[in-house]
Structure formats: structure tokens, C-alpha cells
Amino acid sequence: MKKRILILLLALMTVTLNYAQNGSRVPVTITGSVINKAKEPLSGVTVTIKDQPGLGTASDNKGNYTIKASKYQWLVFAMLGYEKQEVLIKDDLKIDVILKEADHRAMDEVIITALGPQKKATVTGAVTTVDLSQLKTPTSSITNALAGNVAGVMAMQSSGQPGSNMSEFWIRGISTFGAGTSALILVDGFERSLNEISIEDIESFSILKDASTTAIYGSRGANGVVLITTKKGKTDRVSINGKHETSYNTRTFTPRYVDGHTYASLMNESRITRNEEPFYTPEELFLIKNRLDPDLYPDINWMDMFLKDGAFTQRSSLNFDGGGSLARYFVSGSYINEGGMYETDENLKNYNTNANYKRWNYRANIDMNLTKSTLLRVGISGSLGKQNLPGGTYDEIWASLMGQNPISIPIKYSDGRVASRGGAEKQNPWVLITQQGYIENWENKLQTNVTLEQNLDVLTKGLRFVGRFGYDINNNNNIRRMKWPEGWMAERLRNSDGDLVLKRTITEQLLTQRSNATGDRFETMQGELHYNKRIKDHSLGGVIQYTQEKRVNTSNYGEDIMQGIERRNQRLAGRFTYGYQSRYFFDFNFGYNGSENFAKGHQFDLFPAVSAAWNIAEEKFIKEQLTWMNMFKIRYSFGKVGNDAMPVRFPYLASFSTDENLGYNWGDIESKNLYPGLTYSRIASNSITWEIATKHDLGLDFSFFNDKFGGQLDYFHEQRDGIYMERKYIPFVVGLQGQDPRANVGSTLSKGFDGQMRFTQKINQLSLTARGTMTYSKNKILEADDQFSNYPYTTLSGFRVNQNKGLIALGLFKDYEDIRSSATQSFGRTAPGDIKYKDINGDGKIDDTDIVPIGATRYPNLIYGFGISANYKSFDASVHFQGAGKSSFFINGYTVYPFSQGDWGNILTDVVESNRWILGVNEDVNAQYPRLSYGGSANNYRASTYWLRESSYLRLKTLDIGYAIPNGFTKRVGVKSARLYAMGTNLLTFSKFKLWDPEMNSSNGQAYPLAKTITLGLTINL
Amino acid sequence: MKKCRKNFIHLSIAVIFGILFYSCKEKDGASETTADAPAGPVLFNDFAPKKGAVRTRLYIEGSNFGNDVNKIKVFIGEQELKVVGSNGKQIYCMIPRYTSSGKVKVVISRSSGESVEHIFPDEFQYAKSTAVGTLAGNVDENGNSSIIDGNFDEARFAYPAYITYEPESNALFVTELDRAVRRVDLETKTVSTLITNGQAGFTKMQTTTLSANTDTLFLTDDNQNLTARTKVAIAYSLRSENYRRVHPYLYDPAAYSCAPHPIHNNMFYNGYAGIAIKKAVFDPFLNELGPKELFKIGGNTNNSSLIFFHPTGNYAYIVSYGCIYKSLYDWTTRELQPPIIFAGSPTAKGDVDAIGTSARIERAYQGVFVKNPNYAGQADEYDFYFCDQYNQSIRTLAPTGVVSTFAGKGSPTPDGSKSGYIDGDPRKEARFADPTGIAYDEQRKIFYIAERNNKRIRTISIE
Where do the segments described as Disordered lie (chain B) (predicted)? Predict the structure, then answer.
């Protein structure tokens, strides 16, 4: 007891002592000037007092500053592009400082890897560090800035709908046809989504591509890893950064459709050309053309009517950071409001039916030095995303906008009744967009993490412990409030009094509601021991990491016990590094993973990887002879990683059900006395496990001419084995009752390269940087669940994952003689002007055995980007082009095949403007559209090279111009620096395919178009 | 230098605001009629065509008409036409029924309140044409209807399926299948209900047939009996009693139709199981009419059939679904002979105009014999007009066996449907919805057609 009192007293004394010390400090006013080496005065240099909170001050445009401080405090002079300098205040009250320009050297660049930051020069694996200044997107998701900017990433955006407009992306392409192809995304070491992250919060962004960097993630790393760390507070004066952007979004491509008269004429052509009677008499065509009957022949351009010219997006963010050596903080908040493109009803006051997305983000990262050797980091972040949508679903709206022809129905009949062809996608687009209620999806994410770093130099020098705990919750809620008015459709002609005869096509729906919610919880616990040691020229490092994770989602699983069980992972990982004289490096990484999803004996696996690097530039003879060579490092890595994405929970457990057909019939006089038998409803296998990737990576990092020219190139070779798939061709004699068992049987091989290059040049005050990146990947299925075939081209193996397959078209039939002399096409009757196919197997018959792999895949296999940025005085500008290639897709559906579904399906202007086969007028066998047919032609409308389109494109992805408002001006309003900028996104797109945006890879164009955006923004730094 | 920078900032701000307030293009929804008043003086050039029948589209050419059809009135003589649309340079209107020839007058009211009137010097010549029209019947907004009596504007039908024309009083008897028999008085243009289910022991009324001398109306009833002869199968009422009283004619299981021989007046009727065709014969023991089964048609199917005697009494057509049988009348035994398949097929249904058994019918219902002047002097001078319910058309069967389509299935629509409610040219425009009843006024040359789905009585006549 006495002891405790003593301690308390001691503690009190220390506090008072401290206080007394502070009080004894002499307040002084320090003045001085800040100049650079060239003796030019520096304006805007922040001058702060070390470890004292507050804003500090900044030098004026003559480089002078004044600050109040106390003696024996440290003054800190900091400015971007210069090395920080600290000066102790002694007796001299005038302190002049010469700041040294920061030395930027490729050698010293730091790369964030799985187990912490590492100097670029010592890295042996393939890592892309993303230049954050190049990630520019006016949308709510940074995934849209990845394509063409980040070496090793293939990305594709398939919708422009606010809140759903993120890009899908794959690291080094898709290399499996198993369940999961997406990368593992880690934010501050925890598995989190990339879409909600505000770009201003990101400190570092790296992509881990090869086995050596991902092996420690073991069974989860095969699809690559994205590592993001968020910003932390710095020991500096408080800095406040604000940003506001206003974007005006239009569309890159809007599919264009013909007017009513052209539509009716084409419809008649489609009838006449197949010897059927036309639908519209010349008199009716006259009425359509002159728009004399807006009820029966309305002539509506649906796309134009219901899509606005453009919509606005507002985005703001504000963050603060600061702190002293005891604690530092970074606090940020951001807001985005993406406006929808639909032309909605302005009169609706109580709710909105447009497709809007609003998101609020916040983040607080606080670092506390608990003791001299203990650092505690606490991070809290969260987001609330609200997506508002019209009451008609996305598919219904787009199917309706492109399905309704210009003359079938008006929006409303002149007596005020709502026109409709029925429900769902047959509904009037006006009803779907404005009259059918609305859908609200909201997503709430809350992420908490605590990290404890303990320096254990006490035990042995270079030893450090890091412990992490993270706890994330996600909630998704969906509510749909739906109603619609009764719909009517007019008879084909008016009655004898000239009045419309209306038939009701859909009865009124009063307000109904549907709702759904799901949520999950994710917990991670991690402990790491780091050890670093340098013995003369030898540097040694080792990290051992233990992780356990569990994820559970208990919503909507009802009585399903298997789904209610937490999904758990366990992992022991480690890394050992050895370096010699910053020339030779050798790494060994491993992950020893466990998952409870598999049977005992298959739950754990070891994923090792080795890698080595040789920095030739550090060799003596190079250093002496080739002084321009700053870095020339060759790397090679080899190892194993896994992919445990699995569509089935507990694949080793079978499930059973009863079946009357397999029962026992103890027939009695009055009753059948039937006892149903038990049967498998899912066949299990004990030996199911994860798929394994064996990866090789040969890389080169280089930097020449004083780091003016640098880059990174990687060649990769990756084989996936044990891809989990259904076995569909097990003979019936095995007795599996038509149940397809699953097994790890698939195998693929993918090869490719990725790289990036950078060139900087300074001409007087103009500095230029040119950049380029490229990622190419080609894969091949080695083994898949194929049945025996006489034709090797019908198997999956030997071709790409997701390979397009179809018939080979030889153009159109010239005449009946041509049809007679060609192979018989077994898809219905053919006439001149119909598509002629190639008889691949030579059996004189065109059928499904003539389907061969054609083109590439729907997803891009090549992504590249290049651009240039320039800085001149206060101005900066940059241009960035992005392209994709080696991909193709089939176009189909009622918008592409004219009249394939009768009068459902609008006709693209391309049908009229392009070279179309017309009986007696244009019988070109190479025409772009075959002979029209009403109600579809089974022969023409098949997947074939005729309808295969290249989706390669090149686009001016971003163009931006910025102007840094001069300090003299900003200072007067109390602002440290401000930049005004304008940015254009997707301004130009070059592609052979022009019907809709080729990046969307949509087969029928029925998707919310991608945005072409002009953004104006202002950043303010206090 | 400083000033220059300031200007630049001002300029940038101006640009920002310029883009922020970039105004969207105005779009006018087709739902709202743009009531823009004609700007200049209204000019009238001409109208076309100069001649036409009912439903002819009439165009008036000129300029500055305005778009608001409510402000435009067009007359032919005194008859006002329906103005459907106007695009400023053309006015589109339709010639209604019962129009007579006359001068075309256009009246356009201007926003100022005054109106412009123009009478074209040329006269519009109204031409007569055969057209499908609507006699009576109506439905509410939801397409529903019920048995409502009254004049032709008010009256409604619930399920008109069968129709008989009575020439003496110029009236129609319309059987609302399973419900009632209605009387349509063509003189007073009123509809009344003659008898409904439940009255006089009727269970499900099927058809009405007039005797050859047109003074007796026979009514058949599906009395739901399969074997027992306890209920009335055929009843009759007399013109002399203004059809108000119903007398039992024959007790038997359910009957669907009956046909008295036009000369001998023997009654033939059909029953259910196996579609037995029966003859009513007098039973002296019971002192009443009793059944005599003659033959069965269509094997053992339980489809119903309908019997129609040729006006000469030489033969009868027995209509059952996709098939029309021909049964000759034996003048000595005074009985119908077992029939032959004359047109269509009892198994294969469809919609093909062809001869005899190669023709395809979907669901033949009521038919009527109509004298064809082209056949004058031939053995058989009559065509048989019948309703093909599911093919939504009125078809004819010539004495030679040729089946052809007479009316319906007009106005082809892109959706491929055949049914609908459209008047006009019988083949090119008109559409029916489940027509099953047909009758013919020989004197005025008007067909009356009962449609189950449109719930209307339609006409085919020269207007």
C-alpha cells in the first residue's frame, strides 16, 4: 500500500515538474527568411514548433516569416520538394534557413509490401506501386482509374449507373475458370472493399503480382493482392485540405435508333422480302411521316425522351492532419453525389426516381506513442452509400427503352390514359422511370482496427512486434416501393367514329413494398515479429506472421446450419530476406494456410516461394564505367499460391433428401404404403481442396540518366491446377442419379507481361513527364471437364478461359444456286441474303459440330495506357490515353437482329446507314446486315463471326489542366495554397465498334452508358 | 502582372459558373399537346380525297392550322367529322358512318377568340361500301359487361354467342350462352331480355332456332342431364304470344341445337355423349315426343355439335369444331343419313382456305345459308356462312366444298394477333373477337354477328 502511494506521489511530482519547466520558458518572437540553394526566397514554407499543436506560420513571398515560440524549442521548416529542417532556438532571435532540395532517387523509393515498407532497390518480387497523382476519376470508385494506369491490372467498366459504375478488375487477367477471379484487397492489412475508399485518404497503393509477394497470403493470394494503406497524421503543424469537384456527365456513346417512318418502312421491307404481307399501307406511312395521328403512330425517340443530356456529380472532401511526437491524427470526411441520367418527373415532390448515388465517408487514424518504444494506431472508418433507383429494375428499363419501337405506343393517349404494352420490360419506359415508385439500396460499412507496434530492441536489436486486430461490419439494405397505373393499348385502327378503341393491357398496381437486408461481420487478428539485422555488407531480415480470420453472415439462411457457421481461416506466414551489399538479394516467403471448409487432412497446405534479385548497377565495374545507370535490377521469383474461393460450403459433406420415386411400396388393399427412400441431393468428395497456382516471374527494374528514365518490366508464367469444377460427363452406370460431383480437375496456363515506363525532362521551368504502361496476358485451358469428341475444337481445353465460340460466316448467299451448291444449313430455310457458314468438319452439313473457337474473350487481354504531364510555373497539364484490346464479343438481341422479336425491339440507325442486303437493290454478299426477316431467322441469328465484334478501343481517358493560384493572392485570404483545375474524362473514344461503348462489352447495348465527363475542381490547403 | 492574374481568376470563376448552369435542352413530352397557336394567316389549299366511304381518311391541306385538334372543326354538310390530328399543314380527319355528300367546311378557332371558317368549292362525294359495323353492345373501361336492357346506346350483352333473325318483326334473338335469350328489336332499336336461366326450368341456354314458317322459336337447353328424361331439352315460344310464353317441346337429356326440317317440320336435335343426332318422334304410349337416335358423329368425343338445314331441306350441315359434316335428308324415311366429312378435319385444326377436307377450321360455330345470285340455276344456290371462333373470322363454305374467309383478321398488326374490335372493310380492316353467332337478313342484306369477347352485335352491310 505504501509503495503505491509513493508511486502516485512520484507521478504527481513529475507532472508538476513538467509544468514548472514549461512555465519557465521564455516567450520570444523569431523572425528570419527561408531561401533555397540558389538563394531564391521560398514562399509558403511552413514553420512550426516541434511537438506543439497549432497552425504555425508560413513564409511570405519574400521568404520572410515571424513566429512566436519559446527558447530551446525546435523550429521545423518544411516544404514539399525540400528536405525538412529542424533548428533549435537558442539566443539568436533571427534564424535564416537554407532548405535543401529533396533528393529524389529511384534507389530510395519505398515500396509497400505485404509485410511493411521496403526499399525498392531491395525488392525481389513483382510489385506495382501506383502513382496516386495519376489516379483520376470523377466517379465514386477509384477502380475506374486503374485501367491503363497500373501495370498488371486489367479492368473493364460495364455500366455507368451511379453507384454501380465501378470497374471489374483482375490482376494479370483472368487465369482460372473456377469460382473466384478477383484479387484480394487489403486496406491497412485488413480485407476490405476498394470501392468505398476515398482517394484523398490513400497513402500508398500497391499491387502484388507474383508468388514471392503473395505467398504469405497462401491460399488466398493466387489472384493477386491489392495493398492500400491510408494516410496517417504527421508530426507537423495542422494541415487542412479541402477539395470540391463538380462534374457534368454526358455519355460516351448513346445507341441511336431510327424514327417512326423509317421503322415502319423497314418493317414492311422485312415482311415483303420474305413474301409476307406488309403491315403498313402507304397511307399509314404517310400518316406516320407527317405525324398526323400522335395516338396510333406516335413516333417517339424513347432514348432521347428519357435520357437527359447530362447529369451532375458533386464531390467534396475535407481532411485534417497534424499532431506531435506523442500523438498524431488524420481525420477525413468526404461526400459524393452522382446524379442520374434519366429524365424523371419534376413534379414528384415526395420522392425521387432517378438513379442517384450518394455516399458519405469518414476516417480517423490516430497514432499514439504510448511509450518510447510502443506505438498504438487506432483507425476507424466507415461509409454510408445510398443508391436510389427508379421503380422499374435496371434490366426492365433498358430492355424497354430499346425494345419499344417508335410507333407502337405513345407515352399517354390523348384522353390521358397511360399507354403500356404490359408489365415488366414491356411496360412504358415513362412508367418504369417515373411512375413505378422507386428502389433504395443502402450500404453501411464500419471498419475498426487497432495496431500495436512494440519495439523489442530491449531483447535484441532489430526485433519488433506488431499486433493487429480488426473488426468490420457491413450492412446492405434494399427496399422497393412499387406501384403502377393501369395501362392501355389502342387497337390497330380507330372505330368508324374516328375514336380510339383502347384495350387494357395491365391493371393498376397499388403501392406494394419488398425489402431485403443482409449483413456480415469480419474479424481479423494478426501478430507479427520483425527482425532486421545488418552485419557489415550482409543485411538479414525475418518476419513471422500469424493470422486468423472469421467471417459470418447470418442473414436469410433460415435453417441452413452449414451457411450459419463462421468461415474461418488460419495462417502462419513468414519471410526471410538476405541482402549482400545492396547488390544481391534473396527472399524466401511462405504461407501455411488452414481452412475449415475442407475435410480433415486437406485443411492445411504450405505455399512456399523463393525469389532473388541482382542489382547490376551496384556492381563496381558498372558504377565506374556506366555512371548513367542508376539501377538495373533483375529479379526472378517462383512459388505456389492458392485460390480458395469456393461456391460450395463444406464440399466434403454430402446432403440427402427423400424421394418417393426411390421408395419402397408395401402395397396394401387400401393404401400404397409407400415409404420414400433417401437419396443424395449433393454428392460430396473428401479430397476437395483449393486450386493452386504455380507462378514464375522474371522482372527487370531500371532507372537511367539520373533517374530521368525508369521503369519496370515483368514476364509471367503461371499454371493453375486443381480448378474446382463440376464433372458433367460421368457415365450413368456409375449410378450417381444425374448428380454431378465436383472435383479439382481443371488446369490452365497463362503467360504474359506487364510493365511501365517513365521519362522525365526538365527544360528551364517546364518539367515534362511521359508515362506508359502495358499489361498483356494470354491463357489456355490445359485440362477441363470435357467429354470425348471427334473434333478437337469442341473441347474447352486448348483454348482460352471464356473463349468465344461460334460458326464461321462466309458472307451472305448470293443466289439459290449458291445455296444448292453449299453445305446444307440445318437452321431452317435459307434464301439469298442469308448468312452462309463454313463447313468445318466437311460433312456437308452445317450444324453445332461446326462451332469453333473464334475471336478472343469478352474480357480484355491487353490493356495499355500512355500519357504526358507537364508543369510550367503555376500551370500543370496532363493527358492520358488508355486502350484495351485482344478481346471480342458477340452482338445479339432484338436491337441488333432487326425484327427478330417482331415489333419488339427498336432498330439501330446503323441498320439503315450501313450496307444492308436489300432484295433487288443491294445484293452485296458482304453486306453488314443480312436479308431482313420478321420474327427472326434461326439461320442468321446465331453466334458466328458475322456478329463477332472487336471490342478494342483507345480513349482519351483524362485530360486535365490545373492552375495553382499564386501564394500572394491566397495568403491574403488565409489559404496556404489553392489549385483550380479542369478535367475531362473519356472525352474521345476511338473504336471500330460504334453502336455503344466497346468497353462495356455488352452484347445488346442494354446498359446504362458510360459517362463522358467534364470536371471543374478546386483544392484548398490551409 | 497581378492584375492579369486576378483577371484570370475571374475568368475561371465565370467558366465554372457557365458550366454549372449549362441549361439542358427542353424536351416536350408527346403526352402534352403543344397548344401553340398558329402564327400567320390560315391558308386553305384543298382537301383530298374528293370521294370516299365510311372510315375514309380525309386530309385538308394548307398552312398555319395549329396543332390543337380541339380548336379545329371539320364538317361535310352538317355532319361533323372527327379531327384526329393536325401538324399545322395538314388536318387529318375521318369520315363517319351515315355521312352524305356535301361541301367541306373547316372552322379553326384562334387564340384571340375569333374563328376562321373556310368552305371548299368542291363537294365531297360519299360512296357506299360493304363494311363491318357495330349494331349494339358496349363494355366498361375494364372490358366488362353484363345483361343490361335499353336502347342501342345503353344496352349491353354479357356473352352473346348465338343469333337468330326473325324477319316478320325485324328482330334478333341473341342467346347469351348459358345465361339468357335477348331480343333485339331493330325497329325500335331497343334490347330486351326474353328469358333467363331459372325461368321455365332452363339451366344453360344454348341456341335458338326459328321454324320454317318463322312463327315458332325453338330454344335448346343444356339441362345437365346425361341420361334422365326428366327435364325439358327443347322448348318453344310463339310469335302469336309475342314470344312471351315458353312451352315444353321435348323432355330429354341436354340438347345443344335443334333443326326443324324446312318442309316436313320433323325436329332433329343433338345430344351429348358421342354427339348423337336424334330425331324427335311421337310416342303414342306416353302421348309426347320422344328421342330416336339416328347416328353418332365424331366417334366418342364429347364435343357438341350444331345442325343447320339447307333451305331446300335436301341436306343439313352438322358443325362440330374443326369439321363440317354433310348429312343428306332421306325424303322417304324423313330422316338424316349418317354424314360424311365435307370440310375441314375432326382432328387437324388450323386456318387454311381450301377445298373440302384440305381446308382447316379452328372452331366452327353458328352458320347460315345465304343465297348467292351467281349460282342462279344451279342445283344448290346457297353458300354457307359460318363463324370460325378461334380464327376470329367469318368464313364461307360453297356448295362445291370450297372454304374461304369472308370477314375478319384485318389490319394486320406486328404482334401477329388476329382478334380485336375494328370496324371497316370486311377483309382489310375489320377484326372480331370470338365471333360465334351469325344471322342474315335476306331482305336488307345485312349479316348480324354475335361476338363473345367484344360483347357486341356487329353487322356486315353496305353503308
Answer: 408-428
